[in-house]
Protein 1
Amino acid sequence: MADELVKFESKGHIAVFTLDRPKAMNAVSGQLSQAMGKYLDKFEADDNLWIGIICSSHPKVFCAGADLKAINKGEQIETPKGGFAGIVRYPRTKPLIAAVDGLALAGGLEIVLSCDLVVCSKKSQFGVPEVKRSLVPAAGGLFRLPRRLPQAIGMELLLTGDRLSSERAYQLGFVNYVTEDGKAFEGAMDLAKRIEVNAPLAVRQARNVAADTMLASDEEAWEASAKAMSYLVRTPDFFEGPRAFIEKRAPNWTGKKPSKL
């Protein structure tokens, strides 16, 4: 649809979500959240799509946060399944990369925090300025930011509302790569292609166990690891990997799930 606020396309096994509300700096409205949720459903349901990238059509802004005009009108800007922007609480299983080329502020940063990996340009800045308006970043920022950054730095950003530069974000391990301005999407595609060559179900299991056990006990983490391996040994790709190695060729991954779980 021409008026959709999120564009969705596939490039091989890579899905691309483009926030496309440039006149409002991609401020999150109910319509944008619904579109993102719809396409996340499509992404998760398609076994031929293995990795996703979220980017922006705006040359200077990834996302400026919530649409305050919509909120003032009483509009519901969250979705039941995914919450804010249709993504922050979405029960996702496939890896997502945020491609940030500009400002990611307030809810915009919370979208970034919902992703697994981040590629940004030099001009990019990150921040949660909510306290400057007697608000808090309640779409995941309050707890995800101190987890993704050293706790003291995350707390500093939450309490001051100050911004984090791309250089500092890279130094702190918050972003994976920093590109030249205007090249964040290309950098994200390069990273996605490096993931794409691997067995998709193994990538998914690795991502999910790592994400789900971040605050788990060792016993719970060992159990989750064992379940992931038990799942993979029942897939066709489990046998394809060693076979391709022995035959000295690139593996032909199918991404087919076990017939019996």
Protein 2
Amino acid sequence: MRAYSSRNPNHIAKYEDEIKWKVGEQLSHCPRSVLIFDEIQSISEQLLDSIIEIFDGSGPPLSYHSSELPVDTSSCIVIVISDIGSTKLNPYMDREQAKQAVQEDADKKFIHSKKRALLQNIVPFLPLTEEDFASVAIKELKRLGDTLANEYKGVWSGKLTWSKEVPRWIAKECWSEMTCVSDGGRGIETYIEHEISGLVDSKLIPECSTSESVSFNNIDLSISNDGSTLVANIDSVYSDSEFGEL
């Protein structure tokens, strides 16, 4: 909804017509649609009221130019997404505490809205805990392994492995960065993509360029002895003595 953020009355009137047209078009084709309005905090209170009127029956019947009959809005599901109240949330709140924090900020944000009382069915999404970050790190490391297998296909057939401390270490690193915490799981994704991917490439590139055939060696991630850094090492699948025996 960021594209509808202007407070200019002429712009708001245009936004109202555009949104009603889009909703009418969608519901005329599929009355049981799920309609998602994202970043609702960006719009004016007047536009918010106009959107709610589409669905609460207090406004004029919704129409769509290809049909002479009013569009039925009673069968659709409307989901409104916002970051209102997010700065007051913490991972260890219960749902009622979180709901109250969001409701308080919503009431302050839409203080002049005639329809704000309808924004009662709030489902708060609590921030991820450090333990959640570790779970996301495992998934992102697996995805990095799949990406590397595709990028180095034909020259490397090893695997990306890691010690059990690595996901928790990544979680701790990201947990200490406010920007990473605010991004949630995307913060972990960004960290692994920017930091760990380059670290692994620094080992894989020379490994694949010096090997005369496909390398089957693994890349293993571990934590340094002092716990301060993440390190990547070549984990040889075969030793020289094993090749000698063959």
Protein 3
Amino acid sequence: MANNTGPRRALVVIDVQNEYISGKFLIEYPPVESSLANIKKALDAAEKHGIPVVMVQHVLPESAPIFARGSHGVKLHPSIASRPYAHFVEKTLPSCFAGTDFGAWLTANKIDTLTIVGYMTHNCDDSTMREAFHAGYEVEFLHDAAGSLPYKNKAGSATAEEIHRSVSVVMQSAFAAVQTTDEWIASLTGGEKPERDNIFVSNQRVVQARLTDTA
């Protein structure tokens, strides 16, 4: 999906909903106040640079414990609810592509690069980035404009910070160019293309560091 005149980006704002901020399913890392501020900063930059915004909302049946249709938790957070957008996606599965017209809209608008912000890093962001990468899109992930929460289940437990950091590292190793919001905004002005890594080089840095430590 190469574009000879530079990237045709869309800023994809995933599930910035009350449930994650003041509801039953609270984002813990990075602190939600800081990620919200960076999401708003990314929206401001998108508006300034003419980048279309896709607003995404996760909606489950009325009987669901979270994101229930008609509930306060399912609503977009007030800080972004009134922001303009080019396209709206309502979804029921983690990936923005699954069961929606998201992919068709991207194709119709000749979008080749997706910039991902919102929640959760390890679920809807992760799923969308992987599917976008497999479909041939360039993917950018603003890791300080996203966030995770902690889990504990039969497989073990992980803090929100562990989950967010691990997913960000894995995304940078193959699927997305991971960067801060400020780095992304600077690239819009300077024209630098953010680079993602590859799995071999990401691994070899660790191997070489071990060899150096034992030398």
Protein 4
Amino acid sequence: VKKKAKEEEAEGEEQFQPVPYPKSVFFIVGNEFCERFSYYGMKAILSIYLKKKLHFTEDKATVIYHTFSMFCYFTPIFGAMIADQLLGKFKTIVYISIIYVLGHLLKTLAAIPTLGIPPVEFSLIGLALIAIGTGGIKPCVSAFGGDQFKLPEQERHLQTFFSVFYFSINAGSLISTVLTPVLREDVECFGDDTCYSLAFGVPAILMFVATIIIIMGKPLYKMVPPQGSILKRVFGSIGYALKGKCNG
């Protein structure tokens, strides 16, 4: 009896033994801050760039702006499918981030008049790649952060992480929304009294930094392999239930 009591006591101590806070999440939070800075910084001056530099009418600029925003919130479906069924969250984030950086690069190059490249075409292609990038990683980053915690032992740590994570989103968005228009308006470049190339270039650099940060943390990450499509399992369960009900 004493031996059994000691074993139960040892199991209880092991169960409540604190688990160290995963250092990997700091890379994920840093990545999210830089990514949100790049997205909202670019978007803060997009509308005025379409009208004043690409010379779109008010109506066309509005259509392009809102079409871009729509695709940013449509592409997460495909990012989630790729992560769940094929690559896993980490590889999906890295590969799509490269597309994201390329989109920012094209957008920045299009704003440099001395290069002589077609600004409209490069800008629209850049916007398409940015929409794929920001939407593709959107469903993966926060979930990847959640994977780093051991539950239920670290439930409170997980709640703290999501609070800090969403603070980083708001902080990156706020700072970039304030800073990018200042860079556009107060800096002169290429003989113009504004500098769109710098205003787009800073978000591009931040997105490149975001990609580097997420890669740097690779040795520390807990990698969860792809689990398959949840939709397939949901519809399979519904079909099985309906079949059972029809057969009585």
